[in-house]
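Objective 1.3, modelling of assemblies. Example input:
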Amino acid sequence: MDPIIIIGSGLAGYNTAKELRKLDTTTPLTLISADSGPFYSKPMLSNALASKKEPAAIALNTPEQMANQLNATVRTKTRVDAIDTAARTLRIGEETLRYSKLVLALGADQIRLPVEGNAAGDILTVNDLDDYAMFRAAIAGKKRVAIIGAGLIGCEFANDLAATGYAVDIIDIAGQALGRLLPPEGGALLQSKLAALGVQWQLGTSVAAVDHADSGYTVKLANGTTLQADVVLSAVGLKPRTALAAAAGIKVNRGIAVNRRLETSAAEVYALGDCAEIEGLVMPYVMPIMHATRALAQTLAGKPMAVSFPAMPVMVKTPACPTIVSPPAAGAEGQWQVEASGEGVKSLFVGADGKLLGFALNGSATAERAKLAPQLPPVLA
Ligand SMILES: Cc1cc2nc3c(=O)[nH]c(=O)nc-3n(C[C@H](O)[C@H](O)[C@H](O)COP(=O)(O)OP(=O)(O)OC[C@H]3O[C@@H](n4cnc5c(N)ncnc54)[C@H](O)[C@@H]3O)c2cc1C
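Predicted structure (C-alpha cells):
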C-alpha cells in the first residue's frame, strides 16, 4: 500500500500526523521535511530569550522520537522537488516516491524587501528553529538589533530583545505598530510601553541600505536617519509557499487553494497551515492549524470532514503591553469604537446592527477577552 505522505514538519505537518494516528495507527505514513525536523512550537521563538530558552531546549522532540511516536518514516533535510498528481508521485532529486494521499504543509516564506548596501545579504529572518539558532548565534555577545517590520513578529522580537538588555530599533513604513491589527490608540499604547523598555521606533520610513561598518552595520533609512546595529532582523510578513503546488498544476491563489475539506484542485492532495488558502482565507496562526488538522485527519482516515473555524483571537506576545487581537473579516462593514483608559485600550469593531465583528485589546483591557470572545462571529461556521 502506498503511504500517506505529508510534506512539512511544522505544526501543520506533525499535528496532522498526530491526529491521524489517533484514528488510524497502521496506514503507512511518511513525513518529508526540508528542515532538520524537530517538533517544536514556533511561537516560542519570539519569547525564548526572556523565558531563558536556548534553541536546543525549544525542540520538544527529535525527528527520530517523532517517527517512533507516530509509527511513521520521517525524512529530514529532504526537499521535494516536484509532484506528479496524475501518477501520484513525488520527486526528490532522482528518486520517485508514490503516495496514496498527499498533504502539503509547506509553510510560508518570509518576505524580503529590496534593500541596497554591501551587507543587505546579512539581514536575517526567523521562520523556523534552524533560523532561530542562527539568529541566537548572531546576537550572542552583541548589543544592538535593528528590526525591520513592526507587525506581530517584529513587535514580539522587539519586546523579547529589549527585555533582555538589547538596544532595539524597529523600523516600519507604517506610522504605527501593528498597523494591520490595531487602531491608532492601541498602537500608541503598545509603542509607549515598548519605548519604556528602551525600544526606539522609526516609523513612517523604510530601510534603504545596510552596509558593513567598523563594527556591525550601518542601517540607512529612507528618511535620512542612520542607525548602527550589530544584527539586522527582517520581519515584514509571510508569503505562502505555493511554487511546488503551482508547478504541479494545482490551483493557487494567495495560498494553495483548498475547500473546507482541505482538498486542493488535485485528487487526493490536501493542504493546510501557512501555505494554504482555505475558502479564500490565509490564516497563518496556530489555532486555525489545530482546527484544520483535526478535520483533515478524519478525511485522511476515510471519513471526509469539513473544517469549521470559530473566532480565534491571537495573543501578541508583548508582555510589556499584553495585546489580544481578533481582526474583523476582510471587507467587513463597521467601525472601530475605541475606549482608552489609563493602562488599557479597548477597541471594538462594531457592525451597523451593533454586532461585535472584531476586537483589539491592549493592556488592562485584555481582561475583557473572556467576555467579548464568545460574542464574535465564527470565521467559517
Ligand atoms: C516568530 C514567530 C512567532 C509566532 N507566534 C505566533 C503566536 O504567538 N500565535 C500564533 O497563533 N501563531 C504564531 N506564529 C505563526 C505560527 O507559528 C505558524 O502559523 C505555524 O507555526 C505555521 O506552521 P506550518 O506547519 O504551516 O509551517 P512551518 O512551520 O513553516 O512548516 C513548513 C514545513 O514545510 C517544509 N517544507 C517546505 N517546502 C518543502 C519542500 N519543498 N520539501 C520538503 N519540505 C518542505 C519546511 O521545511 C517545514 O518543515 C508565529 C510565527 C513566527 C515565525
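The chain has three domains: 4-108+239-300, 112-234, 322-375.
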